[in-house]
Amino acid sequence: MKRLSVADALARMAAPGLAAPAAEQDHEAVSLVVRGGELIAIVPSGTTDEQVEVQAVVLRGSLRLESERVLTFQVQVGPSTTAFEDLHTRLHPGHHEAAGDGVPVQTARDIMSREIVTISADMLVEDAARLLAYHNISGMPVEDPDGKICGIVSEADVIGHIGVTVSDVMTPDVISVRDTASLEAIAKLLAEHRIKRVPVMNDGTLLGMVSRSDIVRAIAARI
Fold first, then answer.
1. Angle (nearest 5°) at CA 75 between 53 and 85
2. In whole angstroms, what is the distance from residue 167 CA to residue 195 CA?
3. What's the CA gap between 61 and 159, in Å, rounded?
4. Which CATH number describes the domain made up of 108-222?
5. Which of 6, 47, 193, 213 fits 23 for a cystine, CB–CB 3.0-4.6 Å?
6. Exposed, middle or buried, 90 (CB in 10 Å: 0-12/13-18/19+)?
7. What value does the CA radius of gyration of the chain take, rounded to a whole number of Å?
8. Sign of the Cα pseudo-torsion (170, 175, 179, 182, in order)
9. 8-state DSSP, 170
């Protein structure tokens, strides 16, 4: 937890269109890192860490969705109406084994984006550029006419290649991981191959994508 003045906290997490809570002198803000983003709780000054969840009067959060869009929200709450609890291991007990230091082992299935943007190999590079820009992603899987993954196309691939098809510029050798791959193994793979994202595939079936930002958010959530 990190404590800030209310004014500094709201400036740090701007929310155009949302009414700003009154920056009362007897209140302060507590910043909490949560899975996929950050949460700011405005509480009476002097509230202990243990009492933040029951004393919060306003919650403002910023979360990155699986579509990679960012959702910023704000809710007015009252004493004893909030509860912060990590249900991760209870909801998925079979997917997490305690590591030697007590930190749950996270796998691709825990951090991957499930809303996957794909493109057909016979589409033009211009179409790929539009999809990458619209969805704010750096790369996406390429499908052949049978719907099977046959390559990866990235931002670097489309630059300077207007007028050709995706199959002409894509990387045909797909580096992928299974959904049971650990966060650490995926991070090492991305670093070794100098790539920004990797498909999650089980027996040829595309399940999701893991990017560098997914890994960074997962590591930050441990802190």
1. 30
2. 19
3. 36
4. 3.10.580.10
5. 6
6. exposed
7. 21
8. negative
9. S
Rounded CA separation 18/3 (Å):
22
Do residues 162 and 180 make contact, with C-beta atoms less than 8 angstroms apart?
no
Gap between the Cα atoms of 36 and 152, Å rounded: 25
Side chain identity at residue 15, one-letter code: A
Per-residue pLDDT reduced to its tens digit, 121-168: 999 999 999 999 999 888 999 999 998 999 999 999 999 999 999 999
User: Comparing C-alpha atoms, which of 113, 110, 93 is closest to residue 218?
Assistant: 110
Whole-number pLDDT of residue 131: 95
- The domain locations on the chain are 2-85, 108-222
Closest to 176 measured CA to CA, from 147, 206, 194, 198: 198
| Residue that the structure tokens 């190999």 belong to | 121
